[in-house]
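Thread: "does anyone have the structure for this chain?"

Original post by V.I.:
We have the sequence but no experimental structure in hand. Need at least a predicted one for the grant figures.
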Amino acid sequence: MAGIYLHIPFCKQACYYCDFHFSTNLKKKDEMLQALQQELIMRKKEYQGQQIATIYFGGGTPSVLNTEEIDLLIQTVYDNYEIEKDPEITLEANPDDLSSQKLKELGNSRINRLSIGIQSFFDEDLTLMNRAHNAEQAKASLREVTAFFDNISIDLIYGIPNADHKRWQKNIKTALSFNIPHISSYALTVEPRTALKKFIEKGIVPDVDDEIAEEQFQMLCSMLAKEGFVHYEISNFGKPGYFSRNNTAYWQGKTYMGIGPSAHSFNGTQRSWNIANNTKYIQAIGKGLLPREVETLSQMDRYNEYVMTGLRTMWGVSLKRVSEEFGQHFHDYLLQQAEQHLADRFLFLDGDTLLVTKKGKFLSDGLAADLFMLPLEKKN
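Reply from O.Q.:
Generated one for you, tokens below.
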């Protein structure tokens, strides 16, 4: 089984914290849609003999497309790939794009899962992040979306400067009041070359406080657990039966194809990524060329990726798999590197599986980095 990710590189406006590839100029939207279709057709041989289990519209803001444009891309996938019987087809959307008419049209399309970028139910937070919607639009979109979709996810951001624990708790309670079955939540991260980074450097906005962010993360984990959510990946919480099939496939090392500028692909042994430039992407595809770079992953790279993704999930890192797939040296090295974190109770062993403890979850990426095999280490 494999997945297809379609990167829609357009947004109405730039969020201050975002460093993803996008453009606020929609003049080349039609050309981009043609190029996305063409890339899908050009690459269909890569997936011969494989069934597509998930189709994911990410970005950018895919909901800037109208339903006809979305349907056109989905039909292109169906025309050129073998699709399993009930694929998960997700559209990322912003609340301000989800009018009653748009929701009705999407409800009649092949889209069967919506991922809505709420981020916060407070105008102060949304203004600080330069989101295109306001708090009332966020609530209104959720009141209406449940009439058309059952499989719904929302995004929330914690650790926002000036947003105290009381406000964060209210954010979570508001989300829960809509009976949404899946929540993705991320710490606000200050990325280089973003407006937020410049505002913090100039003293316009306070810096992110990691201690507050961790406390809010633990609040989130506790409150959602009481409501029956499964914390199946560091940033993702789902009711049983509502885990993201698309993202779960990423974390479990399944094959996926990234279509569009800046999109990444993985086939098990190689990772590739398209050029992050709309004009150059369109021009290359128009000439029948794939504007991408390809990296063949070494045994060490694949081990490191497995440790990174495995520790982020409820499935952990299998010592048996490490031994069988990478060799005994990697197995022994992993246990050696994990020894101190096991003693400090950031990690624990459940039989054959290495997992992150409750207090270690917020630190999972750093813990994984400590377990990485470095080039100077001897390999089998």
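V.I.: this helps a lot. The chain has 14 helices and 15 strands.
O.Q.: and The mean pLDDT is 95.
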